Amino acid sequence: MIRLKGYLISLIFLLLPLILPAQNLYDLGHSSDFAGYLMRTGQYSLATAEWERVLFMAPNDSAARLNLVRAYRLAGNPSEALRKLYLFYPIGPLPQTVSGEGLQLTLMQGDFSGFSKLLGRSPALPLSKKSDYQLGAWLMQDQWIKRVPYPELPGIVASAGDSNLLNVYHESLMVKRKSRGTAVALSVVIPGMGKIYSGDWKDGLMTMLFVGVNTWQAYRGFSREGIKSVSGWIFGTLAFGFYTGNLFGSWKSAGDYNQKQLDRIRHEAEGYLFNH
Amino acid sequence: MKQKVIFLTISLILIFIRVPAQDLAQTRQFADQLYASGNFSQSLAAYQRVLYFSPREADPGLLIRIADNFLACGQMERALEYYDHGYFAQTNDSLRVEILFDKTACYLRSHEYKYALMELLNLDNNPDRWYFRKLNFYLGMAWFGQEDFANSQLAFINAARNELEAESIRAVFENKKLMDKPNPKVASWLSIFIPGSGQIYTGYIADGINSFLLTGSFVALSFYLAVVTTPLDAILTALPWFQRYYQGGFQRAEELAEKKRAENRSIAFDRILTLLSTPGT
Q1: Mutate to test the interface with B, among A10, A20, A25, A46 (most CBs of B within 10 A)
Q2: C-alpha span between A115 and A94 (Å, rounded)
Q3: How many angstroms separate the CA of residue A118 from the nearest CA in chain B?
Q4: CB B7 to CB A7 under 8 A?
Q5: Could you tell me the pLDDT band of residue B8, with boundaries at 50, 70 and 90?
Q6: Is the CB of B14 less than 8 angstroms away from the CB of A11?
Q7: pLDDT tens digits for range A139-155
Q8: Rg of the Cα atoms in chain A
Q9: Which of A20, A214, B83, B247 could join B103 in a cystine, given CB atoms 3.0 to 4.6 angstroms apart?
């Protein structure tokens, strides 16, 4: 009996390393842990692969789903992030954190119709946050510069929570849209005035100078030698060319001004709306 | 007897139980395989996994391998960070020096020549011939990147294996056509006096002829207008055009000369590297 006990104890000690499970670094717990580390250190591309593995092992892990969507977004792949979000949550109300991700992703993609649909599926989102997103969406489109009527806007502004975003909104109210028609009409009368109206005063003055000088030279040529004046025709053609170019340039400069304002307001709104 | 049979059966079952798993050592081996086959992004993930789950203080070799992976993936800042971690984790002096050379290589690849020089000039003197050559080779590259060709020449000559190599390196640096020509200031001044001549001096014949004809046309137009009308007409009408193309011409001549000179110096640099890396020169 004593010999048997001794034999058993030594056998257990001998086989202990063989019967204890080895540390598996690719199991669910380790993969989740490591994925979190990759997110914290900003290695989002590697993190997406890790979260995919976690979800393969635990498909219903809601935290992993959210992290995967976030990792794709932060890795610069918003289209894949949105695709995953719709895959995980095809219908029905969304949890609050997922709503936030989804709304950001639709705005990043410029999918304003998708944004409206997701907003409708976000009952858990606080009103102030919803209003922030709606105000941001308004500022990221071109309706504000065209002053397109939006009856819900006063209510949204009243309930928005982000003061920085509200400042951007008030800034947008000060922006005066430049009319292309007005720019061209001004340039018809005084070459270069359309560009000055659009804020491009240097280009406008140069246009005035070129058209003016060439027209004057053409006039002088024709006054001296009549219709047979070579220099009159040369300068007249140059003046006509500059004049026509000035009309197109004025039309373009008004459009460029409006686009610059749209881009500026949009970038400011994105900076406050999208978290990193 | 019965007891012995039962006991033997249990022992045999226990011997054959294996729980399949990938532990630290296996993951490290897997990472090494991926690294060896050039799958750097995958090996990076695997090495970091090993580092993250290592129960003891980090193995300096592992830190350096992660740094090498980051370098291979083009992530210079992270590579430098891990070279630093590896340096401080390493206790062996000669291996520490190797890490500093790796870090310097990282700086050279990202054209941060000043930082490369800071690392190299802090290294201790070592009588070992191989170390001396390697240090001077790196110094030569860093000085070259800084456009300090005198120091670069000295360093590359120190890195030469024999007198023949040193002579060849000297010849490359003394080749003015490769190292100093074309001179951007000369190109600019040439085009100031004769529009287009700077571009021709640099080797851009078509550009030079184009500049000459354009600027020349406005000069001719000015003279014609001055004769046919008044000098004031000539100034007001032709001067804005002339000024635009004349100024653009000599500025372009200088830019083209700088670009051409940089290309020539790049050829010189490649020649020096070939000389120093060709076996048995």
Answers
A1: A25
A2: 13
A3: 35
A4: yes
A5: low
A6: yes
A7: 999 888 888 888 899 99
A8: 33
A9: B83
pLDDT digits (tens, 9 = 90+) for B94-151: 899 999 999 999 999 999 999 999 999 988 877 788 899 999 999 999 999 999 999 9
Q: Do B48 and A46 touch (CB under 8 A)?
A: yes
Q: b vs e for B55-72, b when ≥16 Cβ sit within 10 Å of the residue's Cβ?
A: eeebbbebbbbbbbbbbb
As for the ipTM of the complex, it is 0.71
Distance from C-alpha of B252 to C-alpha of B197, rounded to nearest angstrom: 11
User: Helices (H) and strands (E) in chain A — how many of each?
Assistant: 15, 0
- Inter-chain residue contact B21 with A24, CB threshold 8 Å: yes
* Cβ contact, residue pair A19, B14, below 8 Å: yes
Q: Which of A24, A33, A49 sits opposite B22 (nearest CB)?
A: A24
**Maximum C-alpha span of chain B:** 133
Radius of gyration of chain B (CA): 32
DSSP state at residue A218: H
Give contacts of A45 with chain B, Cβ < 8 Å: 41
**Quick one: pLDDT at residue B281?**
46
Report pLDDT for B278: 81
Plot region of A65 (φ>0 → left; ψ -120 to 50 → alpha; else → beta): alpha
> Which residue type does A67 have?
N
Give the whole-angstrom CA distance, residue B179 versus residue B271. 12
- Nearest CB to A26; choose among B22, B44, B228: B22
- CA–centroid distance for B131 within its chain: 21
Residue B172 tokens, joined = 């490359």
